[in-house]
Amino acid sequence: MNWMLALHLVVLAMGTGMSFSNLVNFALAARLPAEQARLLAGLRMVMGRIGDGVIALIWLSGLFLAAGMGGGAGMDAFPVAFHVKMLFVLLLTLSHIGARYSASRAAKGGGAVWIMRARLFTAGVFLSAVASIVLAVLAFR
Ligand code: HEM
Fold first, then answer.
1. Binding-site residues, ligand 1, Cβ < 6 A
2. Contact predicate 77/68, CB 8 Å
3. pTM over 0.90
4. Region of residue 51 (phi > 0: left; psi between -120 and 50: alpha; otherwise: beta)
């Protein structure tokens, strides 16, 4: 039983699901009065904080798995799909940072433009997660 792979799959499923849930949250909040939209923004903020830990665990478990697989050949042992996957993992991480920053600017009264940016970055997180999953399956199956 590979417990590290199990942890990797659980946290990447959490990250993918939470970013999708936040996209639903954004769509709903856009149609609600300001008071209710603020409540939903609070929920997104909590998800975002949990997301910090989830992304840290995705990196930790992923690097741990990679360290155990390379053998003597180092990074050359991995197929091209794995390297492309890593680009999307980087994009996912940067999008998360962008979403967290934009959401905190919006919470400080930055206005609708920061909410729109946070929404775009969140879409970036979700789409990069989907791309990373497809590329991981391509790389390892
Ligand atoms: C630092 C980032 C990451 C590293 C170094 C990494 C590395 C790895 C490695 C080495 C495996 C193969 C494990 C094995 O077969 O024993 C793996 C599996 C997998 N990874 Fe990652 N990963 C990272 C991030 C991600 C992210 C962000 C996602 C998706 C959102 C993801 C999705 C998957 C999936 C779906 C598998 C299973 C593939 C399969 O067995 O068919 N990984 N990862």
1. 2, 5, 8, 12, 16, 58-59, 62-63, 65-66, 69, 89, 92, 129, 132-133, 136-137, 140-141
2. no
3. yes
4. alpha
CB 55 within 8 A of CB 94: no
pLDDT in tens, 78-111: 999 999 999 999 999 999 999 999 999 999 988 8
Tokens encoding 9: 């799959």
Query: What pLDDT, in 10s, does the model give residues 1-43?
Result: 899 999 999 999 999 999 999 999 999 999 999 999 999 999 9
As given in the structure block, the two tokens for residue 110 are 């930055």
Structure tokens given for 14: 């959490």
DSSP states along 38-73: HHHHHHHHHHHHHHHHHHHHHHHHHHHHHHTT-GGG
- Which of 1, 19, 85, 87 has most ligand 1 atoms within 8 Å of CB, for mutation? 85
